[in-house]
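Example record for the data management plan.
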Amino acid sequence: MEENKQEFKKSLGLLDATMLVAGSMIGSGIFIVSSDIARNTGSAGWLMIVWAISGFMTLAAALSYGELSSMFPKAGGQYVYLKEAYGPVVSFTFGWTFFAVIQTATIAAVGVAFAKFTAYLFPSLDEDVYLLTIGTYHISSAQVLAIAVILLLTFINTLGVQNGKVVQTTLTLIKILSLVLAVLFGFAAFDLEVWNHNWNSADTWNLSRLAVDGGKSDYTFLAGLGAISAGLVGALFSSDSWHSSSAVAGEIKNPQRNIGLSLALGTIIVTVIYLLTNLMYTGVLQMEEMASAPKDRVAMVAAQEIFGPIGITVLAIMIMVSTFGCNNGLIMAGARIYYSMAKDGLFFKKTKELNKHAVPSYALWLQGIIACVWCLTGKYGDLLDMITCVVVIFYVLCIIGIFILRKNRPDLPRPYKALGYPIIPAIYILLGISFILLLVFYKPQFTWPGIIITLLGIPIYFIVKSKKSSL
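Corresponding structural encoding:
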């Protein structure tokens, strides 16, 4: 049977690639996770330090990935980089984890977040409204809406990258503008008494555990490090998927230049917005209010302070736009990883085929189906906690790969070189390893399951390889 010779169409310019990066990063996290960070750190100063560390790590990784993307400007992103630096076992293990949990569970979680905030406008779509009950198992209207959104966006992306990019670029520009306006309105509603409580008190730079009832307890030194790493889980998750443009390299114009630039620009834009948003929170909400926000929805509490009764409606619409656009970017980028794996004979054969619109439609639908299954399990949130450690492991491996490739393949063209090499990449590696070790030590119930899921990829690789060899 003749193989489909259709090739990717280079339809994405620098603006599109940058909006893919920024849009995939901005989901629902920035509106929620600061509540948990407030409880873990107990002070405005440490809240901002955690977000600054997260921003530095994300930007350092993105600037380092620019070198890898300029060397290997083809679809697959991280999968390709890991294969070139370490060989197929490591790259397959990443691809397996990416497919099994990282990308598909994230798509599910973002889809359900869209549904949860839609329920503020349409209460019948709430996660507590059950459409089907079998024993202790429930399917809620929020889950059904999440599935519908995932299938809709998957369908849109099967119609060609042009459709996906229009949705992505338009929605990302809207949500960036919306967040900037929200920050400006927040600073306009600045409360000096609240600001002084957060920033001019003795606890401003005191790292402590802040209970929902407002009580505080100090940490030992090692426990404090664990608290910082726990806070970083939410901040790093909110900044994740910053590498999305590298996955669609085959569809980006002038990829050697535009991938690295889009990674840098996208992460800078989002990092600045995140820092300003959290600074704004400290000007309208006391730390105790942030820590005790209902269901951790700190942005909802802030919106009520800023906009009054209409605040919830304003923010619900913002988050709906944000999560819808975020999922579009995740869906678009994710399928290209499976495409690259299939090209190496390590994934379902049909996922390497492009349809008449020059997109991997089979890979898109397969990804969408697995994401829908995660929606039905209701366990996506737990899995995201488990996998955060693993995500950083692969980021660290990719950046170590820059050092390996400079030594082993020095003659490869490098149109762009990692900024601040070797210092900035080395700092990221040290921070990443520290974060991983602290999570393994302080949150083993979340980290070991994720590591086990990842390690399962090794025997699966050899099973797939043996079957391929026997054909």
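Summary line stored alongside the record: The longest helix spans residues 311-343.
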